[in-house]
Amino acid sequence: MSLSVQFVSLLAMIGTGILSAALIDLVYSLKSSIYLPKLLRKYMIAFELLAWIIAGCWSFYVLYLIRDGEWRIYDPFAQISGLLLYASIFYKPFRLLGRLIVFVILKPIYIIGFALWRIIRLLFKPIVLLLNWIIGIVSGIFSFKFKRNFKNEEK
């Protein structure tokens, strides 16, 4: 293996460490910022575990692309240095990028979806009230008729 391939693989492992740390940070920030009922919070542990598994499989895939999956002793050290680089240098830019994505893309989608839900609910509310009124009248008529038939049979 040439020195250039080893250097590229070292940089790739540092990169996977940075992106894995970003993924785990994203999972933790989602976990802390979203209100979830107690039942769904239990499943966040599985979601977090799934994120760790995805990060590990993705880093092995990068290693497979570069060196056909050969693992060297410096690979974990390179990934740990990538994690530390994320914590020291890339934390704030990734958070800024995440906030921009939330405010520019996700919040408008949420607002539009919530507005559409309210409009649909507002349009269907009179229909539901009318159906409840009709069902109430029909069930009142049939229950009166059934009560009268049962009283006649008992005599």
Sheet having the most strands: none
Helical content (DSSP H or I, runs of 4+):
over 70%
- The count of DSSP E runs of length 2 or more, i.e. the number of strands, is 0
Mean pLDDT: 83
**Tell me, what's the shape?**
elongated
Number of helices: 3
Structural description of this entry:
- The chain has 155 residues and is mainly α.
- The protein contains three helices and no strands.
- It has helices at residues 3-33, 38-67, 74-154.
- Helix 1 packs antiparallel against helix 2 (38-67) and helix 1 packs parallel to helix 3 (74-154).
- It is elongated.
- The termini are far apart.
- The model has no long low-confidence stretch (mean pLDDT 83).
Give me a quick take on this structure.
The chain is built from 3 helices and no strands. By secondary structure, it is mainly alpha-helical. The model has no long low-confidence stretch (mean pLDDT 83).
Fold blueprint:
Elements: H1 3-33, H2 38-67, H3 74-154
Helix pairs in contact: 1-2, 1-3
Describe this protein with a few key phrases.
mainly alpha; single chain; 155 residues
